Every structure is written in C-alpha cells, then in structure tokens.
Amino acid sequence: MRVVVVEDSGLLRRMLVQLLTRHGIEVVGEAVSRDEAVTVVAATVPDLVVLDIRLPPGYADDGLQAARIIRSRWPQIGLLVLSHYLETAYAERLLEEVPGRVGYLVKDRVQDDERLLDAIRRVAAGDVVIDPELVQRMMQRQRRHNPLDQLTEQERATLALMAEGYSNAAIAEHLFCSVKTVEKRVGAISDKLGLPDGRERGEINLRVLATLTYLRHSQ
To answer: How many domains does the chain contain in total?
Structure first.
C-alpha cells in the first residue's frame, strides 16, 4: 500500500511515517499544509492519505478542505482524517463531503499500532471507519424525540458497529449471531430511520446515511 502523510507537527509526522514503514506500508510523500497535501497527492497518487484536520494555513478545518479536494480529483484514494478531539460536527461533514472509503480517528489511536493499521486497511478496502470512542460517547447521550428510540437494543448495537465501519460479517462475529440476522436488522434499521435500502443507494452509501443519522440524533 502507498500512503501520503499530511501533518504539520514534525514529531507526529515522523512517528506516523516510522510506524507505517515498520509495518510494510510505503510512505510515498509527506506534507504539512492543505495546499502542499494536494500537490504531493497529485505527484504521487497514493492508495490512501492520512491527514490532520487542523492544518496550515487556517488551522481550522483545512484538513477537511484538502480531503474534499482530493476526493473530487482522485475518487479512488482512501482518506483517514485524524483529530485531537472527538468532534461530531467534523465527523458529519467528513461523511457528507467524502462518502465512502473514509475514516475519522482521534490522534490517540496513533499510539495503538493495531488500531491505526486496522483503520488504514479498512479505509483502503473501501470501508467507512468512525472512531469507536466517538460512537460510544454518542451511545451514552440522550435526546428528546430521538428517532433512534424506535430501534431495539439489538438494532442499536448493530447500528453502532455500522457507524464504526464494520461489515455485516464482522458485525455478526461481534454480536454472536448469523450474517442473515444482521442483514434483517440492517433492513429494519433502514425502514425505521426512513433510509433508502441498499438496492436504491448501494451498501456503502446506506452505511454512510445510517452513520450520519446515528451521529446527528445521538448528540
């Protein structure tokens, strides 16, 4: 796998590069700003870009801006966005602007080699990966008139794992049930939340829509 790392902190960038290289992933470019990220990606066309949300020149959402530009020009490239904070609004924007083959993790995951590498591999394979801590935090919050209240406990557990980007087979393994059962729950979730089914929008887009609904109504 060929990866570009975009991070303005020299220490963290070197840490990421060393970690990826140590595990057999080829780092084909590095960048420290939004504009440089686009330039480096244009020169290397990697399989995946790991990038910080807060980058020069604005140190606001410049990483998300870069992600949007990269996806519009090279839709086949996976994007894993890192953030210091669990920010639901940023996660929502990321999924709306860059649906599919995308991930959002807090930077603490960089300390956990396996967690980070798993996210990278899953995003490169086309999955949507949301930091499990963000999903867990959302699970613990309540909101009046919440459409998620329509879901059974099993359906909520299934949706939580969908929000993290797990496939039906992986969800079945986590919840100790059959893939057929998971498929039925996904169908029920779609019906109750008013989402189009997979035949209308495709499996990946269905999961993105479900995740967005989950994030919006669990705040």
So the answer is: 2
Closest by Cα among 141, 204, 132, 202 to 174:
132
Read off the CATH number of the domain in which 42 is found: 3.40.50.2300
Range of the domain at 183: 136-216
User: Which pLDDT tens digit goes with each residue over 159-197?
Assistant: 888 888 788 999 999 999 999 999 999 888 888 887 765
Looking at the fold, whether 9 and 102 belong to one and the same domain comes out as yes
Note whether 142 and 124 are same-domain residues.
Answer: no
Identify which of 198, 211, 8 has the alpha carbon closest to the alpha carbon of residue 93. Answer: 211
Say what the pLDDT of residue 201 is.
45
- The residue from 109, 130, 151 where one domain ends is 130
Q: What is this structure's pTM? A: 0.69
Q: Give the pLDDT confidence score for residue 144 in this predicted structure.
A: 52
